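Please produce the structure of this protein holding FDM.
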Amino acid sequence: MARGRFILLEGCDRAGKSTQCTMLVDALKAKDLSVELYKFPDRTTTIGQMIHAYLTNSKELDDRAIHLLFSANRWEAMQEMKRKLSAGIHLVVDRYAYSGVAFSTAKGLDLTWCKNPDRGLIRPDITFFLDLPTSEAERRGGFGDERYEKRELQENVREVFLKLKDKEWTVIDAKKSILAMHFEILRETELKIRDGEKDGRFAEED
Ligand code: ADP
Ligand code: FDM
Ligand code: MG
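Below is the modeled complex.
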């Protein structure tokens, strides 16, 4: 059996990641494919609850400590994600290690230090980067109460994302309509799903 594909959607706040993840999962299900949604941070675990407390300002944590918790929150999902991919289930993932590096580096931590804890995580088969200028993102509603919902930080995060962007990313212009983005993401995902047989092994983050 071909293993499932790891489909990642990354990007700045309000670029439309969560909207597109849900639409992609629904569209793949409608085509009778096995697919599940993952979201990072996963706030349901014990580590996730600590992250949630930090993001909602009810807990203070050192910048490095919270960075490591975000990474640990990915590591604790790894075995289950591998099992699902091996069983032929496609995973649509809302944020992952790139968000981890982009936010912590934007706060002032060293880029290489930020990348290190995520080394060895399974690598996405396809990464969509939903690109939206901060000024456009702001028009999609006011900032909420969470810790990182501040204009200057968001601008720095976008700059780091653009530095991290490599030729393997599929950049989606997030100024487009929800449907136009959806059809683009669905088309690329279907190509990736059909694209040859996988040998069942996982590439890892380096
Ligand atoms: P993210 O998960 O990237 O923060 P969301 O999917 O939650 O973004 O979308 C943020 C807001 O922007 C929501 O109100 C959503 O309805 C709206 N939105 C999403 N995609 C678009 C789009 N392509 N054009 C206009 N508004 C959008
Ligand atoms: N975030 C998310 C990080 O700082 N590091 C990470 O590793 C991840 C996965 O947490 F501000 C930030 C990004 C965002 C917040 O918001 C989570 P959502 O709305 O749950 O995606
Ligand atoms: Mg979201």
